[in-house]
Each structure stands twice: as structure tokens, then as C-alpha cells.
Design goal:
Layout (H helix, E strand, L loop, with lengths): L2 H13 L2 H8 L3 H15 L4 E3 L4 E3 L1 H25 L6 E7 L1 H4 L3 H11 L3 E7 L2 H9 L5 E4 L8 E9 L1 E5 L21 E4 L4 H12 L7 E4 L2 H9 L5 E4 L4 H6 L3 E3 L8 E8 L7 H19 L4 E3 L1
Parallel strand pairs: 3-4, 3-5, 8-9
Antiparallel strand pairs: 1-2, 5-12, 6-12, 6-13, 7-10, 7-11
Helix pairs in contact: 1-2, 1-4, 2-3, 6-11
Length: about 300
């Protein structure tokens, strides 16, 4: 029995599939099967029940797997502790929402470069459902966004809360009332988020509650495109204030003081309970540090630490 065999048991228990486990461990399905068989011979009982579709732990196997998880975790912690003197190397794959790419990501990359100069970073900027799905498929190591509904799958590190504000271009009609009543928003097209994303659902709920059934709604999967559309006067949108500070300062976007506030958005660093990289928890911790510093820098009108 060795640590690789225990890691194989842990991954197979999580993935429930020999081929997926083989891909994760970069060996063949036959090698995975051989390791499990060798362990079962040594232990004297079956670890898994197999059929054509699924692999599931036996009662005895489930008890063994819990102990194996503890040993593997301690082993990985030992490697991490002993590597601190030189600093880790390798690759880290980070998935980020556009709002995170525009705010926290630069400081995170700089901190990683300063502390761990041998680490190579790969960044994917995509929608919230996409980066979460890629995390769960182990195509990313850590994401800066939102966790899924099954929190037991993840290590979740709170980062920050961004204030959400209604914005328009420079030429949005003004009247004597400084507060824009929600019903006035119906008169202009509204630029929403990509269908299926968290903020698309929240904006849909907001519009429904405000009885915007007849509103014209456009959709954009790009933060930069949305900002450009609003600046050009194509429509209104509700955006994280922290991501558009430069546009607000330049006057290309202006804040609408709407009588019905839009709720703030909370952001998190998320990796799997069994991370695909030993660097993932470190990146999450660095992201929390950078989020705290960012919030202190921009002020509570834009962002708050969680």
C-alpha cells in the first residue's frame, strides 16, 4: 500500500468512474483497476461494487475511504509545508467572471508572481455557469465567482460584495426629480446579462417585481460590450459599481438614483473539497487578501469585504 494507491481510492470514490479517474491521474483505466485490485487483495475485502454504469463504495470500502482521505490530506499538507522554503511551482488554472477580471485579478496575479515566481498561471474569463461547470469537470483549479447549490462539494472563501447600480449614457433624459422612479425605466431598453447567469436571474426577478413585463430587454455576455452599449445610449443596465469606476469618473456613464435599489452581489473564491491543485487553496487565500485591500481602496460606496 502506498500513497498513490490511496489517492486512487479517493479519486475513484469521488468520480465513480474508472475512465474519469484515469484521466485525472494521467494513467490508464487498466492501471486504476490494477491498483484497486491490489489494495482489495491486501485488505481482504472489496472496496467498490462495480456495474456497467457506476462504481460505488461497499460498506467496508466507505469506512476505508474516509481514513484514506485523511491520510491523503495529511500527505498533501506535508508536501505543502515542506515546499514553503522554496515556494511551489507548477500550473494553476483560474476561472474568473468579467467583474473579477476587471477588479481583483491584476492584484492576485501580482501577488502570485511576487510570492511564487515559479508558478505559471492560466486564466479563463467566462460566465458564472461556465466557470463553475469547468471547475466541477476539473478543467479549472479555482474560480472567482459563485459556488453551486451543493456547498459540500466546495471549499468556499468569501471575497467581497459589490454594490450594483443602475447606469445610463450621458444623454439619458433628465427631469426635475433627482430620483428615477422604477416605472420610468420602462421607457428605455434594458441591457441584461447572459441568460442562465446569476445576475440575469436576479435582474429578471427585479423586473418582474417592478412589473416590467412590457420592457424591451437586450442580452449581453460581455461586460465590455454592455458598458459600450450603455455609453452609446442603446439602453440602461445595472452593473457592479466597482467595475465601472473609470467610466463614472470620465462621465461616459452616469449613475441613476433609482427608487427601487438593486441588491448587491457577493463574490467568492471556490475550489473543490479535493482540489485539483495544491495551489488552489493558496490562490483562494490570496484572493481574499486582495479583495480586502481592494475594498479598502475603493470605499464602501463601491465594495465591501465579506
Amino acid at each position: 500500500m502506498n500513497i498513490r494507491f490511496l489517492q486512487t481510492v479517493v479519486w475513484l470514490a469521488e468520480l465513480r468512474n474508472f475512465r474519469a479517474t484515469a484521466e485525472r491521474m494521467h494513467i490508464t483505466p487498466a492501471a486504476i483497476s490494477g491498483r484497486i485490485a491490489a489494495l482489495e487483495d491486501e485488505l481482504g475485502f472489496r472496496l467498490f461494487d462495480r456495474d456497467s454504469r457506476d462504481v460505488s463504495p461497499t460498506v467496508e470500502g466507505a469506512r476505508f475511504i474516509e481514513g484514506a482521505k485523511d491520510i491523503v490530506h495529511r500527505y498533501e499538507q506535508l508536501l505543502e509545508d515542506t515546499s514553503n522554503a522554496l515556494g511551489p511551482d507548477g500550473n494553476i488554472r483560474i476561472g474568473v467572471l468579467p467583474s473579477m477580471a476587471a477588479t481583483l485579478l491584476p492584484a492576485i496575479i501580482r501577488t502570485l508572481r511576487d510570492r511564487f515566481p515559479r508558478v505559471r498561471v492560466s486564466v479563463s474569463t467566462e460566465s458564472s455557469p461556465t466557470i463553475l461547470q469547468r471547475l466541477e469537470h476539473r478543467e479549472l483549479d479555482v474560480i472567482l465567482g459563485f459556488p453551486g447549490s451543493d456547498h459540500e462539494l466546495y471549499r468556499i472563501t468569501p471575497l467581497c460584495q459589490f454594490k450594483m447600480i443602475w447606469v445610463s449614457g450621458q444623454d439619458y433624459p433628465r427631469d426635475d426629480d433627482p430620483i428615477v422612479r422604477a416605472e420610468r425605466l420602462r421607457a428605455s431598453p434594458i441591457i441584461s446579462y447572459e441568460v442562465g447567469t446569476q445576475n440575469h436571474r436576479r435582474l429578471s426577478d427585479y423586473l418582474r417585481q417592478a412589473q416590467f413585463d412590457d420592457a424591451t430587454v437586450h442580452y449581453s455576455n460581455s461586460l465590455a460590450t454592455t458598458i459600450g452599449m450603455v455609453s452609446a445610449g442603446i439602453g440602461l443596465s445595472v452593473l457592479p459599481a466597482a467595475t465601472i469606476r473609470s467610466e463614472l469618473l470620465a462621465g461616459t456613464l452616469k449613475v441613476l438614483d433609482v427608487d427601487q435599489d438593486f441588491p448587491s452581489t457577493d463574490y467568492f473564491a471556490v475550489c473543490l473539497q479535493t482540489p485539483t491543485s495544491r495551489l488552489a487553496p493558496r490562490v483562494a487565500s490570496i484572493a481574499a487578501e486582495c479583495a480586502s485591500a481592494f475594498c479598502a481602496d475603493v470605499g464602501q460606496n463601491f465594495a465591501l469585504p465579506l
